[in-house]
Design brief:
Mean pLDDT: 81
Structural class: alpha+beta
Helix content: 40-55%
Radius of gyration: 21 Å
Order of helices and strands: HHEEEEEHEEEEEHHHHHH
Strand content: 15-25%
Number of strands: 10
Number of domains: 2
Number of helices: 9
Strand order of the largest sheet: 1-4-5-6-10-7
Length: 277
C-alpha cells in the first residue's frame, strides 16, 4: 500500500464520508450521473448546476427538514437526483428512508421554489447498495415507481427510485473498455488502497477518483473532514441566507413596498428584486 496511507485506518470509497468527499467533486458526479443515464438508455445528458452534500434544516421553519441524503444534484433541466450510499446490508428500514428522502425532495419544491404542482420537477433517487434487497433485486439496476397494479404499467414518472447493486460487479470480468458506470461501481467494492489502485491507468475519471480517495486518506489530512464539513456548512448557510432574502423580498413586493426599502432590508440588488416580479 502507498506508504503515505495508514493501512489499518483506510477509508474505502463505500464509506459514507469518503463517498461524500469524492462524489462531491463535480467531474466525478457529472461522469457518474451521465454514464448512468447512458447505461439505462435514457437519451439525456445534463450539466450539473448545483450540488448539496448534506442535510440541513430550513431556519424559517424549524419543523420542516430538507432531506438530501448523501448528495443531491440539481440538473440544468430542473430535475433532482439524490445519491445515497449504503455500505452495509440494505433492509426495509433503508428503503423507507430513501423513499422519505425522495418524497420530501419532491414536495419541498412547492415551498422552496414557489411553483405549482404541474410544474414540479422529477426526483430520481440513486441508492448504491451491496446486497439483494428482499431477495427480489437480482439485477445490477432495480427500479421502483408508481404503477397501475391491474395493468402493470407506470402511471407516474415524477418519483423514481433505483437500487444499484455495486456488489454484483465482483462477478463481472473487468476490461479497460467496459462502461464507465460499471467501472465506478466496481471501485465501491475495493476495501484497500491496493485493490482500488489496480484500476489506475485505464480511464481518467477512475484515476481522478483514486486520487481523491488517496487525498481523503492521507494522514496529513486527518482533520480534513472537519474542514470539509465546515466549508460546506458555510456554503449552505450562505445559500439559505440568500433563499430567505428572496422569500422576504417577495413578501415585501406583494405588500407594494419601495424597492430601496427592500434592498436595505434584504441586501439584494435592484436587479435581483425586480427579477422576482
Amino acid at each position: 500500500m502507498n506508504s503515505e496511507l495508514k493501512e489499518n485506518t483506510f477509508s474505502p470509497l463505500s464509506n459514507d464520508l469518503t463517498f461524500k468527499y469524492v462524489f462531491s467533486h463535480e467531474n466525478v458526479l457529472k461522469v457518474f450521473i451521465n454514464s448512468f443515464l447512458d447505461y439505462i438508455g435514457l437519451d439525456a445528458s445534463c450539466n450539473i448546476i448545483d450540488i448539496v452534500p448534506q442535510n440541513y434544516i430550513i431556519p424559517t421553519n424549524k419543523t420542516i427538514k430538507s432531506y438530501y441524503g448523501d448528495l443531491t444534484v440539481t440538473l440544468n433541466n430542473g430535475d433532482i437526483i439524490s445519491l445515497e450510499m449504503y455500505s452495509n446490508k440494505f433492509s426495509e428500514n433503508e428503503y423507507n428512508k430513501s423513499f422519505a428522502y425522495t418524497s420530501r425532495l419532491f414536495s419541498n419544491q412547492l415551498y422552496k421554489n414557489n411553483i405549482s404542482y404541474k410544474n414540479m420537477h422529477k426526483v430520481i433517487s440513486l441508492n448504491l447498495i451491496p446486497s439483494n434487497y428482499k431477495r427480489v433485486n437480482k439485477e445490477l439496476i432495480n427500479s421502483y415507481r408508481i404503477k397501475n397494479d391491474i395493468l402493470n404499467i407506470s402511471i407516474d414518472n415524477n418519483i423514481l427510485i433505483y437500487l444499484l447493486r455495486f456488489d454484483l460487479t465482483n462477478k463481472m470480468s473487468y476490461n479497460l473498455y467496459e462502461h464507465e458506470f460499471i467501472t465506478i461501481l466496481r471501485l465501491l467494492n475495493c476495501k484497500t488502497f491496493q485493490e482500488i489502485e489496480k484500476y489506475k491507468g485505464g480511464k481518467k475519471i477512475v484515476d481522478d477518483i483514486i486520487e481523491y480517495v488517496r487525498e481523503w486518506n492521507l494522514e496529513s489530512s486527518k482533520n480534513g473532514l472537519e474542514r470539509y464539513m465546515k466549508e460546506h456548512d458555510e456554503e449552505l448557510r450562505e445559500e439559505t441566507k440568500t433563499r430567505n432574502s428572496l422569500d422576504i423580498a417577495k413578501n415585501m413586493l406583494n405588500k407594494k413596498m419601495k424597492i430601496q426599502d427592500i434592498m436595505d432590508v434584504t441586501g439584494l440588488t435592484r436587479k435581483e428584486i425586480l427579477n422576482l416580479k
